[in-house]
Structures are given as structure tokens and as C-alpha cells.
Amino acid sequence: MSFMMKLPAALAASVAAATMMLAGAAAAKDFRLGLITPPNHIWTQAAENFGTDLSDATDGAHSVTVFPAQQLGSEAEMMQQLQTGALDMAFLTVAEVSNRVPDFGAFYAPYMAQDIAHAGRILQSDLALRMLEDLPAKAGVVGIGYGMAGLRQIVSKGEVTSAADLEGKKLRITPFKPILDFYNLLGAAPTPMPLPAVYDALANGQVNAIDMDAELIWKLKYFEQADTVVVSNHMMFPMVGLVSAKVWQGLSEEERATITELMKKRLDECIATYIVKDREWLDQVRGTDTAFIDVGPEFFGDVPAQWDEIWSEQSSVLSEMRDTAAASAE
């Protein structure tokens, strides 16, 4: 006979209720969420808002502590922490995911997105969402949804009037293969570098050009160290909201549903914000003394086609991604 069966009914009910309360208290968790962006960045603000939402929705049972600006390490290090369960959640560039799941490199196909709004539609397509289903098995993480930064531009010391002016330049990139291939094809000297080091590296000549989005060109004042901003819009730059697959396994279905709903809401808002703000940030930089040139695919010659040739062998979804982009173009 069990202990509960030996107790009077009223007392047994009280013990059961207390046991449930203790179980609930034990399940309460302060999730740790890491990212590389500074505190004033849209991604960081989205993460903070998600944490507030989760605390409100669970009456404080769950909370989120956000660690911006690489406090928990590089994206590669945070991905490893997610895989082991040492880190609960992260907002990482899709670039880092593509280092482990090459299919995601298709998102960086040059000039796939006509503009920032088109980039948002690609990220919310059925294909993009379906790709997240592969992440638990291939990367040890659960993909909740996508955010993004603005389209990519080039900030350069020295005058730039043609792609030939970028040949040989030490050009800072996010460390991942799709963008490395793009700039190698262009003849530049792509130099992987973490975001916090970029301003000083540009100032002291460690690099003499950078690949960057309008938000950080403006907010982190990279334009102050530049002579030319090449407004090329040559690539989209997605972000993905991730939860450790090991952490996910320990959550109830209700907890998973709540996290998914609230995180995806903030990721979708992130996309909507960039659609509005990306042009505004560029306009603010245009108001400075930095020279601007506006270019299209022709500026890069055969490089976009050569990139597609390389990546059609590495990403099984590149052709389908191009078709998806074409179908969602306006």
C-alpha cells in the first residue's frame, strides 16, 4: 500500500497539492539568452521584450536574462553551449547556422532579395520555416523563427568607384563561408572579425573596409572612419531564434507552445522594424560628410553568378530558394 493510500483523504489531497506546488516551483527557470549585438540593437531589444513577455505570461515562473555583446562568447561558442545545454536560448545570425547546416547558406545568395521588405517575405516563406525542422537533428537546436538585420552595404576607407577599387582590400566580414566566397570571388581580402572589434580595426587600419548593415553603420558610427559607403544591398542577413534541443526536451508542451508563440512574435516584429527603419538609417548616414555611391548587381560583374555556381553544390535548397524569392517578388 502506498504512502498516499495510508493517509486520510483530506490530508492526502493537501499533500498532493503541496507536491504539485513544489514541482511547479522546481520547474521555474531563469533562461539565459545570448547574442552578439550591443544593448541598443534591435535584436537585443527583441530579446529583452521576449523575456518580459514570458515573465508576464507565466506570472513570473519563467524569466529570461539576456547577455548581449558577446558576453557569453562568440556565436560559434554560443552554438556549442546550446548543443550541450549550457545555454538555454540565443538569437544568432543564420550565418553561424550555415557553418553547421550548409543549406542555410542559400539565404545569402547575392541579390536574391529586391529590397528589405522582400527579404522579410522570403524569411516568412514556407520553405524558410520548413528548413527549421532540420535543426534539432543536424545542429542540436530548435529553431523558433527568423528575424533579420538590414541588407548588406560596404564601408570603405579610400574612394570607391568600381569593384576594382575593392580588390586586395582587407575587408571585415562575419565569419562564415557564403560571404567569404563572395568577397574572394571579388578579389578582396575578406577578414573575419567579431563585431566588438570592428570600429577600432577600421580606425587603426587593421582592416580598410567592412561589410555591414545600415543600422550599425549609423549606430556604431562606422561612417566616421570611412571615405565611401557603397550602398549595394547585395545580401540579406537573417537571424534565427534558437532554443537548446536539450533544454527543449525538458519543457512541457504548454511551455514549448508559450515560448514559441512569444519568441516568434518578437522575431516577426524585428522583421517589421527593419522594413521601416533600414532606409531611415541609410538616410541618416547620407546626411554626413561621407561619400555615397549607389550600385546594383552590375557593379559586381560575374561574381553573383559565380557564387550561385559554387553554392548550388553546397546547398540543396538554393534553386528552390531562388524560386521562392521570385514568387514573392513584387
TrEMBL record:
Protein name (record): Tripartite ATP-independent transporter solute receptor, DctP family
Annotated GO biological process: transmembrane transport
Single GO molecular function: carbohydrate binding
One GO cellular component, as annotated: periplasmic space
Keywords associated with the record: Periplasm, Receptor, Signal
Top-rank lineage group of the source organism: Bacteria
Subcellular locations according to the entry: Periplasm
Signal peptide (residue range): 1-28
